[in-house]
Amino acid sequence: MITIIVPVYKVEKYLNRCIDSILSQTYTDFEVVLVDDGSPDNSGKMCDEYAEKDNRIFVIHQENGGLSAARNTGIDWVCEQNRSEYITFLDSDDWIHPEYLNVLMKGIIENNVKISVCDLNRVTDVLPYENYDNFNFELSSPEDFLVNHFWQYNYACGKLYHKDMFEGIRFPVRKVFEDTFTTYKMLHKCEKIAYTDLQLYYYFYNEQGISHSPWKPSELVIFDAMQEQMQFYKEKGLEKAYAKEFELFVHHHAYQIVRIKENKKDLKKNKATLKEIKKTLRKYLRENKDKFNVHNMNYSYESAYPVFMKLYALASKFKAKILNFFDKNYK
C-alpha cells in the first residue's frame, strides 16, 4: 500500500483538484492522509467531507505548525498505523497524473529500488493529460542523480519512498526550503534511484504560494541547508556531488540577489543584506575563477557585476558587428 500525505492550509480554491487527481489514480492500493494544518478557511471541512465519501481518506486536524510539521505528522501516522509500505507527498495546490502512482510503483518493483522519481510539470493551469503507453527508467546512484537531475533532486514531491527511508529523518519545522535540508538524506540511503522523465507531477505556479511570495530574510536559511549538504558530501568523499552542490550554492547567491531586488517595497531595508550577499558572491567567483567564468556562470556574473556585464555584452555585440563588416567588405 502507498500512503499519500497531503498538507492542507488555506487551499479551498485548489483542494478539490488535488484530491480528485488522487482518487483518479489507476493504481488503487493507496490511502490518503490529509493533514489540516490549522487552516482558517473551509479546507478542513472539505477534507472531512471527502473522508465521509471514501474510506481510504483519513483526516488529521492540528494547530498550525507549517508545511514541515504537517508532513511530519503524516509520516508519524504512517509509522504508527504500520499498514502502508510506501510514502509520497503531494502539496495541496498541486495535482498528479492518473498514472503517477502506477508508474512510480513499477519503477520500484521492476528495478528493485526503494525510491523512484518522476519529472515535474510546472504549470499555471490545468492541462490535458498525456497518454504514456511506454516509459523507461534510468538507474543512477544518488550522486549521479544530483549531477544530472539537480532540479528534481531536492523536491520532496514527485518521489515514491519506501517508508524505511524516513527512519531517523523528519522535515525541519518552521524553516523554508525544508526539502533541501531533508530529501538528500533519504536519497543517499539508497544504492540506486529509478528516474523517469515523464512529467507526472503537476507543480502549480501559485503566486500566493510560499515559493512565490516577496523575499524575506528567512529565505537565507537555504545557505545553511546547502552547506549541510556540502559537508555531507565532503565527509562521504562524494567529489562530484560536492562540486555540483558548490556550483549551485554560488548560483543561489545570485538568485537571492534577484529575489531581493524584485521586492522593491522592502528594498531599502534589505540594502545591507543585498550588499553582503553580493560581496560574498564576488568572493566565491574570484576564488574559483579557474572553474567559473562569464560563460558557464553568466547568471551569477550578471548579479555580482551588473555594470561590467552590460559593458561586456555591448563590447561583444560591437565586436560581432566589426567582424561581420570585415567579412562582407574585405574578405
Explain what the structure shows.
- By secondary structure, the protein is α/β, with parallel strands linked by helices.
- The protein is built from twelve helices and nine strands.
- The protein has helices at 15-23, 43-53, 67-81, 100-111, 142-148, 150-153, 178-187, 221-236, 239-262, 271-287, 298-304, 306-330; strands spanning 2-8, 30-37, 57-62, 86-89, 95-96, 115-123, 138-140, 159-162, 193-204.
- Strands 1, 2, 3, 4, 5, 6, 7, 8 and 9 form a nine-stranded mixed beta sheet that branches.
- β1, α1 (15-23) and β2 form a beta-alpha-beta unit.
- α8 runs antiparallel to α9, α9 packs antiparallel against α10 and α11 packs across α12.
- The mean pLDDT is 93.
Main attributes of the structure:
17% strand; 12 helices; 9-stranded mixed β-sheet; single chain
Short structural summary:
By secondary structure, the protein is of the alpha/beta class. It has 12 helices and 9 strands. The protein is globular, with a radius of gyration of 23 Å.
Which stretches are low in confidence, meaning pLDDT under 50 for 5 or more residues running?
A: none
As a whole number of angstroms, the C-alpha radius of gyration is 23 Å
- Largest sheet: number of strands, sense, barrel closure: 9 strands, mixed
Average residue pLDDT: 93
- Give the DSSP E fraction (strand runs of 2 or more residues): 15-25%
**Secondary structure tally, helices:** 12
Order of helices and strands: EHEHEHEEHEEHHEHEHHHHH
Portion in helices: 40-55%
Intertermini distance: 72 Å
Instruction: Please provide the count of β strands.
Output: 9
Give me the secondary-structure category. alpha/beta
Shape: globular
